[in-house]
Amino acid sequence: MTLGRIVVSVLCIFGLGLGECFAFELKSKGEIVWVADGDSFRFRPDNALMWVKLKSFAKTRDGKTTHSLRVDDRFHLKDMSFLVRVGNVGTAESGTTQGRLAEQFARSVLEGAEGTLYCWDIGYYGRPICSFWTDNWEYGQALIEKGYSDYETRYGEHPRFHKKYLKASGRR
């Protein structure tokens, strides 16, 4: 756990004024069962407990927002999969040329891929914010290196791969 996550966790434990305390880290192996676009996909973990915990975090976050996070749409009980938003990247929308290229890239490397998913937050639209990697590569880093996305830090640095993402973006 990074120092920032530890500080947030301690502040949450002692109730020191943080409105939303969602400092968590969950990791599981599994497979990608569907690609939505360049930075979103559906993941089925090998560990059902991850699915249960993430859905619980999303329900808790949903209860603290003014808009619906559509949690039941994001988490499918039938196949124990959930919709993921890749953290710290932002590909163009699918309706644009760049967005279609990012989506094609995502489909070529992600569909049916098995690997590890690491999640640390629930996003504005109710999707877990996560990173995905295999033994050979990490997806967000690949998006940045290939020019499909910038390294997005407006909501904070990547909790695990900050230095790799900086290097991939040429910012060191």
Automatic annotation (TrEMBL):
Q: Which SUPFAM superfamilies match?
A: Staphylococcal nuclease
Q: Which InterPro entries match?
A: SNase_OB-fold_sf (IPR035437)
The name under which this protein is listed is Thermonuclease family protein
Lineage of producing organism: Bacteria, Pseudomonadati, Pseudomonadota, Gammaproteobacteria, Cellvibrionales
